[in-house]
Amino acid sequence: MTHLMLVLLALATGGTLQGVVRVEGTGEPVPQATVRIPELGRTAVTDARGFYVLPDVPAGSHRVEARALGHVPAVLTLRTDGAATLRLDFDLVVRPVRLPGVDVRSAPPGDSLTPPPPADAGPPATRMTSVALRTLPGVVEPDVLRALQILPAVAAISDYSSALYVRGGSGDQNLITLDGVPLFNPYHLGGIFSALAPDAVAYVDMRPGALPAALGDRLSGAVTIQTRSGGRDRVRGSGAVGLISSHGTLDGPLPGGRGTFLVTGRRTYLDAVSNAAYGLGITDITVPYGFWDVLGRATYPVGEQATLTFTGILNREGVHIPERMRREVDATADFNWGSRMATVGLRRPLGRGYLLDARVGYTDFSGGFDAWSMSWSGNIFCEFDGCDYSLARRDSTQAVEARTGIRDVVAGADLTRFGLRHTLRTGFQVDAYTHDNALLTLDDFDSDYLSPFDQAGRLATAAAYVEDQWQPTAAVQLRGGLRVLHAGRLGTAWLPRVGARWQASRTVALSAGAGMYAQAIRSMKDDEAVTASLVAYDIFATRPEAAGLANSADAVLGVEYRGQDLLLRAEAYARTLDGLVMGPEPDDPLEVPPLVVDGFRLAEGTAHGMELTGAWRAWSVDFGAAYALAWTRRTVNGVTFVPRFDRRHRVDLTAGRPFGDTGVLSARLALASGQPYTPVVGLAAPLRFRPGQGEWEQEYVGRVVLGEPNSARLPGYLRLDVAVRRSFERRWFGRALTLTPYLQVVNVLNTHNALVTKPELWGGPRLTYWPELPILPSVGVEWRF
Q: How do the domains of the chain map onto residue ranges?
């Protein structure tokens, strides 16, 4: 059935039509669905929770349509006297699209509908759905954040890190929120993959620039992660068993039928398996690292209109060295770190086209890092198969003692008024930050490279905004707003934001946007250090009072063509950054300290470039292409250089096609310019003065002479990833069960990409390269009922 015809007789007093578009059965909200009254030429687009508003509906009988990609359209006939507010909800039947992909806006090529107007004027966000997250080839398992690195606006500093470097900004300059609350360091295993299970995610929106006034307060991009609501009709389960971890998700209605729940958990077993084998003497090595994470969400209706939402996450990871290994290496360690987040949200339509969203939340990241060197005294009896330490005495000396912690208590609210031509938004957010970072002990380490410190502080910020989106004609949308950020001793910033969009024809749209941004917190990590390529974690702190707020501004121009089977988008951008905190100038660029602690320099930055995105469907294959041309610069004390994460050219190609009736073959090819490094320009044998002899003596060991910072480039980057998955239907205990085994191979060509280079003296001055990821296959099985 193409259309569902229902007649709704409404004797209500309603001139404003509002409601929610959901999936039939599960009750999951459908974001960016279109709700139309054709004879009035009136169209609304649902928000993240599936909510829409059609204001000023006159009295009479009207045909109301709801449409969304991958769903059967629904049509209702409404009769109203046009006086007050009427609620009209739609339940759409799922009609799956054969191949999932990356939603650039609201529908991929091939959709027969006229593209609906975007929710915001200006350059649109890029949306990644949970289905697309599972389809893309990934490192070990699907990854919420790493999948965004296929976008031309996002650069990866290395294969080892899923941190996002957006249009010349560093990883800590992106706002990552889960259900409206910021997240700190949502990573596992140093950043190899994120700490968010894809099964719990409804979608991820990426805005690389030209942000609306409601989003802040960071200098670069905004990543909005929305979790799924549980199904309203029955309990459902899903999960996966992989090489290094397993996860499971359960969702359904709450007891009594009011509200829904969703809970998902993940645990690695590399540590448990390897420790057991190590303890039994099966292997000579162990992996003393483990992680786990849990996410829960519940929705509960309050009265006829309001909905309460509860979301919480908890994840931990750490290194725990088993007893036998402690004796063999004469050392032990206890490293533990992780995140927590909890939020309560209230959503309530207020009638006459008003919508209130309020939230209160808590989020943190904390870690403790302790290590001891050990020595043994007394009687130790050793034989061929090992040593007996039972009569020995162990003495330990602390070699490392460190901690890190950042927390934020958040409260905010947004009020939206949907008018016939104007959508007015206003809101506020208050953040109370507390940080505590210390390195108290670090034996046998160069104090010039990393010295002890102990820093703690508090900072409260308050932000408020107002913004109006005006649609003077059916083809033109304009947005103008102002955001104000007050950060106490760091100062106050006034941040205007504008955006525009013109639907020039059915297939061509032009967009533009600009804005100013400010940031009150920073990462102590120095992105110029080699360790930044290996570890994604940021050590967050409030900015130094002497530095004040960091500031940035950007402007974006875009054009988009959307045909029947082809989508093309081009965007040009320019960004400036000011007040960036950098460490003191190092003597050797290869020995840049990993943290900016006491002394610092203030730097400026610029970034500009062009990005192309394309999607094409042909021969039952979905093709995707992205290209980025970027120039990024940093200037400090009059010296301008290219930051280490810069890549001048980047190309990302994806393809996916059906494999049988229920399978998918997918591939991703990434090519990029090499990252910058400081070259060796010569070898010197310096002279050393010997006072006793009163003469100069030439040293026998030469020293390299380095050129301008980051003035050379590593070899180019090439990586091909492939994946195959196929689903099978089974019956288990009377219930339908879907099993989907998958195989994916990262770097299938085993390309020896260069991570960083280091000059060597032995055998003459030369460069050696540290490698990126080698060929990395992984297998697993997903299940769903």
A: 5-92, 126-675+778-784
